[in-house]
Design brief:
Elements lengths: L2 E3 L8 H6 L6 E3 L5 E5 L2 E8 L2 E5 L3 H7 L6 H8 L3 H10 L9 H10 L5 H15 L2 E4 L2 E4 L4 H5 L16 H13 L3 H7 L2 H8 L7 H10 L11 H10 L12 H15 L3 H10 L12
Antiparallel strand pairs: 1-5, 2-3, 3-4, 4-5, 6-7
Helix pairs in contact: 4-14, 5-8, 5-11, 9-10, 10-11, 13-14
Amino acid sequence: MPRITLGHDQPFSLDQTLGCGQVFRWDRTPDGSWCGIVGDRVIRCRQKGSALSFTGADAPFIRHYFSLDLDFPAILESIDRDPFIHNAIQRCRGLRLVRQPPWECLCSYICSTNSNIPTIRRRIRAIAQQFGDGIDAEGTTSFSFPDPSRISCTGDVSSLVECRLGYRMPYVFKTACEVTARKGWEETIAALPYGEARRELTKFPGIGPKAADCVLLFAFQKYEAFPVDVWIRRIMREHYLPELPQDTALTGREYDAIRTFARKHFGPYCGIAQEYIYAAREGSKTQVPPT
């Protein structure tokens, strides 16, 4: 298997990165390796110490996909602002954000609303099996995630019935149609500043503030995005913003207050801080006064 030798000054953990819930089409196999589908590739990766072995892609693709080209120690130093995030960094050091394909990421977060990770994975797999292309690898057939035109060309939302998306079904269909019609939408979103890009994404059916922030963070590397869900709200209230009300539904005003604080406190890489906070959410109870 080809391999990349990881520098000791550039931490990377394959298990932390693929096991933290940011991607939905990777599985850990009994031998400790990971197998995933990215675009039209079936990729297998295995890490042993500083050696990252892989098949199904070349080294430049692997480096780009796993953000191995970023100076992560400098990024982690910039967000290491208090004892709580420091503990999260120590527990999850090596976790990196993968660079996800934008359309697949957009569709995934439409499918993620009010759902757990196994259910999201099932929905994404069902869409791929119904509309994607078969990929033969290692004696099995996997399926690529379909181009949005594969869904929109059916002309009927009922083509998604077998995918069991529930109330998300018309959102996936309508967004597939809009994305198909808006040529160059990825380049447009990528070129916009974070705030404008966020507003553009929320115009797609089924994309609210949290889903937009997830897509901007994972697919467009806009690291100032700070997605807020029930877990992040709870953590931010407990450790940073005690004035937030308890046991109430998250309002738009609260969401904005949390992400504004996060951007000020953690800096331009606050989205990476969010992922570390989420991954280490059972950690320290140290209270941090707001800045």
